[in-house]
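Q: I'm writing up a methods section and want to include an example of the input and output format. Could you take the sequence below and give the corresponding predicted structure tokens, formatted cleanly so I can copy it straight into the document?
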Amino acid sequence: MFDLTRLAAVKEQRPLIHCISNIVTANDCANLALAVGASPMMAQAAEEMAEITAISRATVLNTGTPDEERFKICLLCGKEARRLDQPFVLDPVGVGASSWRLERTMELLRLYTPAILRVNLGEAQALLQRDKREHGVDSDVPAALAERLDTAVCLAKRRRTTVLLSGPEDIITDGSAAWSVPGGSHWMARVTGTGCMLSVLCGVFAAVEPDAVSAAVLAAAFWKVCSRRAEQAAGDRGPGSFRTALLDAAGMLTTEEFAAEARIEPL
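A: Here is the clean output for your methods example:
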């Protein structure tokens, strides 16, 4: 069902991906997009948002280090992406950390519907106004698969979009059907920005795959394969070595290896 050869299309087409990243992870996000074969642009000025969005194949909005100016440029990008019918990915990092952050993100979602909403469990619960399980920008308390699936499906239905809820197994749903992408590495939780990088991968695959669910599944499966390979390569040398090995894995993974190693399960 899912066309894993889209990875080859990324390398062939080198789509321009506009990333409104945060100050913590911008460099890693740009390098990951380059490693996979895309061309990242990390523009930040409100004055050029419409123009940059217009020449891009997809836009990734990340609210990890927010201020009023960042939300302003996210709104400008959302407006232009909707006008052009261009996919954009929203990563509402730590949305439940403050009422102001939640309020501004909800305003963005009321005005514009992302192609893919990439969240962890705590962020999803905050957007649903449930008891949240966030610790800063992280989801602090583990939950059973059934609870995570219910949360993802409810959010997809509420926002009428594709949700990628990342965790021990990533869950992708449009509110009707759902898939799980299991595996990965426990080291992912020890390196900041791995969720932000997954959101960039969603944008990369959305640039070459018009179906949002398929793009999200491909992004999740690719990142899980990379994390497994990175853990094997880094051994027990720690999170710094793992971080480097992640980028290496993303840059070296072939389409054939991706197809052989990807694990995608219907729920």
